[in-house]
Design goal:
The structure holds two protein chains of two kinds. Chain A contains 15 helices and no strands. By secondary structure, chain A is mainly alpha-helical. The model of chain A has no long low-confidence stretch (mean pLDDT 94). By secondary structure, chain B is an alpha+beta fold. The chains are: A mainly alpha, B alpha+beta.
């Protein structure tokens, strides 16, 4: 499936109808036969590459593919099953009694507090080996080297208080005018400090489907106007569950002798304690006050983000507990 | 007469920090500027933050609760 996609994409968007036909057929067959679209390496890698056309593009691929009708149809078909799977298995909490900013914020904080997934941050803080720390950064790099981008797609879809809140958060994510302070750049600096490849997408072939899915869900929510509630909820949940874990991640780096590489994590302890308040009250709360019908999608987006994070963590910890690598290509990174 | 907008606004976040937005200086007791990386800051008011005067989210695990009256305000 991903092979058919890449074969089609290296050709000009004006040619190769035959390859596109084969791609569509391969997608339908892959969706029919997969036991789980969320954990299917091939389907999630395909979706990841299709989403990449909306961000930085793909090396050697014509940018005109981004709005190609038939390629869009393939993507829509995969996303349809992906979204259905998430709606089936992600629990959505009850609506708050009043749909004003404060009760909406409180519902989001309660949802995050009730999340019982095992913490990766505590493992990194107290137990992770050097090799596991590097694997953790590789797993995270698939999102963090483009940190904030999927949510930025929501800005023109919002108005008033919610829009101002999202811009305020994203301005901080993008360094407040200082490129070297961009969160993606701080993460890249940590990777370089550990001798890892900081080029975007460098480790995509090595991460499991669930990691790609955790990023694809952000693109799904961010690139569809009808899901603007979900991308807002996703960001709120992400920010609410960030400050404290980042302190533990930083502690893990310090424990392993990398005290000079903790800026990304230290920055997030402080930044996300600000962002969580803005995201829960002004962004999510403001959006629901303006568009009360979006409450269920806000809660779904938040819950989906928490669930995804939990599934990635389960995958990583299950591998580590058994002494295996959490990466797919069995490339346990040399320390 | 147009209403005068304040230079800075402090939001008392229920069960959380004081969110400060706008044009303000944050200084230590001796008047020195406190190192600051962002325009909008969250100031600790539960007492548990490890990066005071800033908030680090510790109020949640600490179970910090503000007054009901504040939420209604």
């Amino acid at each position: 499936m991903s092979t058919e996609l890449l074969t089609a994409l290296v050709a000009s968007p004006d040619s190769s109808p035959e390859q596109l036909y084969r791609l569509h057929e391969a997608a339908l067959e892959a969706l029919r036969s997969t036991p789980d679209v969320v954990r299917d390496d091939d389907l999630q890698l395909t979706l990841f590459c299709l989403n990449a056309l909306h961000y930085d593009g793909l090396d050697g691929v014509d940018d005109a593919w981004e709005w190609h009708t038939e390629l869009g149809a393939v993507k829509a078909r995969i996303e349809q099953d992906f979204e259905s799977a998430l709606r089936d298995r992600v629990p959505v909490p009850d609506r708050p009694a009043r749909l004003t900013a404060q009760p909406v914020a409180a519902a989001l904080f309660d949802l995050a507090a009730s999340d019982t997934s095992p913490g990766l941050s505590r493992y990194i803080s107290s137990k992770a080996t050097e090799a596991q720390l590097r694997e953790f950064l590789i797993q995270r790099s698939v999102y963090q080297l483009r940190e904030a981008d999927p949510h930025t797609f929501a800005i023109p879809r919002l108005n008033g208080r919610a829009k101002a809140a999202l811009v305020e958060i994203q301005g901080d994510e993008y360094g407040g005018g200082r490129p070297e302070r961009m969160h993606s750049e701080l993460f890249a600096a940590t990777m370089r400090g550990l001798g890892l490849d900081d080029r975007y997408g460098g480790y995509v072939p090595q991460v499991p489907a669930i990691t790609l899915a955790s990023v694809n869900v952000m693109s799904l929510f961010g690139l569809h106007r009808r899901l603007r509630g979900a991308i807002v909820g996703h960001l709120a949940a992400f920010e609410i569950t960030s400050s404290v874990p980042n302190r533990f991640y930083g502690n893990g780096l310090r424990r392993l002798g990398h005290g000079e590489l903790t800026e990304y994590f230290d920055e997030h302890v402080e930044a996300d304690a600000v962002h969580e308040q803005i995201a829960a009250r002004d962004l999510a709360g403001g959006l629901v006050e303006a568009e009360p019908d979006l409450i269920d999608d806000v809660l779904f987006g938040a819950s989906a983000g928490l669930a995804m994070d939990g599934w990635v963590t389960e995958h990583v910890l299950a591998a580590w507990v058994e002494g295996r690598s959490s990466l797919t290509a069995a490339t346990m990174v040399a320390a | 007469m147009a209403a005068q907008r304040p230079a800075a606004v402090i939001t008392a976040c229920p069960d959380g920090p004081l969110l400060v937005r706008g044009d303000f200086d944050l200084v230590s007791a001796s008047g020195e500027p406190v190192p600051r990386q962002r325009r909008t800051v969250a100031l600790c008011r539960c007492g548990f933050s490890a990066i005071k005067p800033y908030c680090d989210g510790s109020h949640k695990a600490a179970g910090f609760r503000t007054q009901e009256s504040e939420e209604q305000a």
